Amino acid sequence: MIYIGIDDTDTKESRGTGKLARNIAAELAKHCRIFGVTRHQLLVHPDIPFTSHNSCAVIHAEAPDSEANQLYEVAKKMMLEDFIEGSDPGIAIATGTQLTPANVAFGLDAKKIVVTQARAKEVAKNSSIRFDPLGGTGNGIIGAIAGIGLASTRNDGRFLLKGKNRELAAGTRTVSELLKAGIDQVLALNGEAVNDETVEVLKNAVPSFIQGRAVLFVEKRDGCLIALKRD
Question: CA-to-CA distance for 82 and 79, rounded, in angstroms?
């Protein structure tokens, strides 16, 4: 797996980082299979500048390690072409074989404490992870590098894109429809599997990334199963 992390690509008035990540994924899909695009929540703190929720996005590309540089150049070019004045974008890329416990620890720390751009660069360089600040302060490399560490655990965040989940607009959906769209499993919060019922999707079916699977959690409200959005 090749992980491409991006962050801080937007402003309050612009399209979001998640939208850009999905656009990049669509372009990369011309070159390889895209496993999905995940969102990872980082620390919200007064000392950290962010647009809305301080989350980063990671594209999971199923391609040989030898193609990493090619995919990186495509993603980087798209980010530069879609640069938003006032944003501080950063990009990073790593293969599964490059990532170490230190990369994961950095990602986990970024969820709990204020981490610096200097530490992000040091962690990346020690693992030979390629990264670039692409404008402004370049602070987006912090989230980009943290994101690929978190994504590599296959146990953090939620899917912005998994198969055709974005095509499941609001409405009542059968579990069969959800599974055909790319969601791996539908579970109640108590762990009970949901197989033959219908689920009310309020906006998009957004599964969590748990143990390498796209798991959609549901909760019963007023006799109906409601799809939840959980990290």
Answer: 5
Q: At the topology level of CATH, where does 2-159 sit? A: Alpha-Beta Plaits (3.30.70)
Q: What is the Cα–Cα distance from 141 to 145, expressed in whole angstroms?
A: 6
Q: What is the mean pLDDT of residues 71-92?
A: 96
Q: Where are the domains of the chain?
A: 2-159, 166-227
Model pTM above 0.90: yes
pLDDT tens track for 47-78 = 666 666 789 999 999 999 999 999 999 999 99
Residue 45 has pLDDT above 80, yes or no: no
Cα Dmax for the chain: 53
In the Cβ-directed half-sphere of 142, how many Cα atoms lie within 13 Å?
Answer: 24
- One DSSP character per residue, 128-143 reads T-EEEE-STT-THHHH
- 222: left (phi > 0), else alpha (psi -120 to 50), else beta? left
Which two structure tokens, joined as six digits, stand for 145? 């590098």
